[in-house]
């Protein structure tokens, strides 16, 4: 059984919605690689007829607010204009 626990640098638990967790998992499955919107929607299993293009931006904004030190200048989730998004940190699987 796998467990998931996201903690802040100070050790406090960070609550994520199901959508945020799915999006983070999508980023972690392809670290340091630019993913298009469609790839992110497919990998996060959020892709359905009700999802609008900008809803992905909102989810990314919310996730940045929870995991970035300075969401206004993100270091973990980078935007590649006109291409997509990238999780820029190195990921170690334990």
Draw up the topology in text:
Layout: H1 18-29, H2 37-43, H3 53-67, E1 77-80, E2 84-87
Antiparallel strand pairs: 1-2
Protein architecture, described:
The chain is mostly helical and 94 residues long. It has a single domain (18-87), classed as Winged helix-like DNA-binding domain superfamily/Winged helix DNA-binding domain (Arc Repressor Mutant, subunit A, Orthogonal Bundle). The chain has helices at residues 18-29, 37-43, 53-67; strands at 77-80, 84-87. A two-stranded antiparallel ribbon has the order 1-2. The two termini are 14 Å apart.
CATH class: Mainly Alpha
Question: Helix segment count?
Answer: 3
Give me the CATH superfamily: Winged helix-like DNA-binding domain superfamily/Winged helix DNA-binding domain
Tell me the radius of gyration. Answer: 13 Å
Tell me, briefly, the overall form: globular
User: Could you describe the largest sheet, including whether it forms a barrel?
Assistant: 2 strands, antiparallel
**Residue-averaged pLDDT, rounded?**
85
Total individual domains: 1
Give the name of the CATH architecture.
Answer: Orthogonal Bundle
Number of strands: 2
First-residue to last-residue Cα separation? 14 Å
SS class: mainly alpha
Low-confidence stretches: none
Would you tell me which CATH topology applies?
Answer: Arc Repressor Mutant, subunit A
Q: Fraction of residues in helices?
A: 25-40%
Q: Summarize the helix and strand pattern as letters.
A: HHHEE
- Give, in spatial order, the strands making up the sheet with the most strands: 1-2
- Into which percentage range does the β-strand content fall? 5-15%
């Amino acid at each position: 059984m796998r467990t998931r626990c996201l903690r802040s640098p100070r050790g406090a638990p960070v609550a994520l919605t199901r959508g945020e967790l799915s999006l983070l998992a999508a980023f972690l499955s392809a670290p340091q690689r630019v993913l298009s919107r469609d790839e992110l929607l497919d990998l996060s299993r959020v892709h359905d007829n009700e999802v609008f293009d900008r809803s992905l931006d909102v989810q990314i904004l919310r996730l940045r607010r929870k995991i970035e030190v300075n969401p206004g200048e993100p270091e973990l989730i980078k935007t590649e204009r006109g291409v997509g998004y990238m999780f820029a940190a190195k990921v170690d699987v334990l």
